[in-house]
Structures are given as C-alpha cells and as structure tokens.
Amino acid sequence: MSAPEAVAEKIRTDFAAMVAKLKRIDPPDGHKWLPQVGPLDWWNRDIILSVRGIGPSIYLRRDPANDDDPSQLRVEVRLNWNEVGEAPRLDLLRCILWCERGRRIGFAAKSLLPASAVFLRGADVDELYTRIALHLDPALATYRRWLASRYDED
Asked: What pLDDT sits at residue 95?
C-alpha cells in the first residue's frame, strides 16, 4: 500500500470509528446523530483532497430539521488529520467541537461549551473521543437540565 493510500485508509477508518463512538451517546428526544453525507469523496473521489481543507463533520441535530425550534440542540464534531495548509498525516487526529442550543442568529446560538468552539487533539480515535466526551457530557447535561426547567412550574 502506498503512503497516500495508507493515509486515505486511515481517514476512512477513523471517520467510521468516530461515527460509531458518537452514536453511543444517547441523543435528546427528537435528535439524531447524522454523519455528513459524502464528506470523504466529494473532491473527485479523492479522500485526501476531500478532507484537506475543512474535514468531514458528524452532527447531532433535530430530526427532522427545524431551524425555528428554540429548544433544538446542535452538535458538530469536525475531524481533521492535518495542520492548516498541510497534507493529511497518519500521526495526527484533531477536531473542532461545537455544541449549541436554540435558534441560530447570524450563524450562532447559545454555546453550551466554555467557548463558542473547542479545539481538541488525540493520538487516535479513542483518545480524541475521550477528550470530546469530557466536553460534550457536561454540555449535554446542561442542555437536559435547561430543557427540563422550561417545563417547571413556578
């Protein structure tokens, strides 16, 4: 297997493994984990060129979508195997994590993370997933508490 083929296979394997791991996280009612459609082959079926710029995303969203729902949750995990401007590598896996609730105004909603986005790295899928969970678990707990409080009586 050539070096580019090995990198492409690692990207394919890592993406599938991260989708499987994230789907183990129980989504709130009416929400579903949805991997981005066609993220690995949109650039002339070349995996390396397809992920070089932005990277593929895995979403937790309301299903069916309803952008006007003030109680919706949006999570995006965008994976990358490179530093900005570099070609993907076998020894690097990183992601950007967003977790928001409510309607989006100007491409932003109420972040459930300490910042609007969190940048994480891991040596492999398991390590990166652990780091994602350290941020996502409290954010989802905050969302569930907020959602329950909307129906509390005074």
From this structure: 94
Cis-peptide, bond into residue 138, ω within 30° of zero: no
For 27-56, give one letter per residue: b (16+ CB within 10 A) or e: bbeebebbbbeebbeeeeeebbebbbeebb
Average of per-residue pLDDT values in the chain: 87
CB 99 within 8 A of CB 117: no
3-state secondary structure of 97: strand
Name the region of 86 (left: φ>0; alpha: ψ -120 to 50; beta: rest). Answer: beta
Residue 70: pLDDT over 60? yes
Type of residue at 89:
R
CA-to-CA dists, residue 116 to 62, 105, 111, 120, angstroms: 20, 14, 6, 13
**pLDDT band, residue 4 (cuts 50/70/90):** confident
User: What is the token pair recorded at 3?
Assistant: 């070096």
Closest C-alpha to 56, from 80, 32, 75, 74: 80
pTM of the complete model: 0.89
Residue 43 has pLDDT above 80, yes or no: no
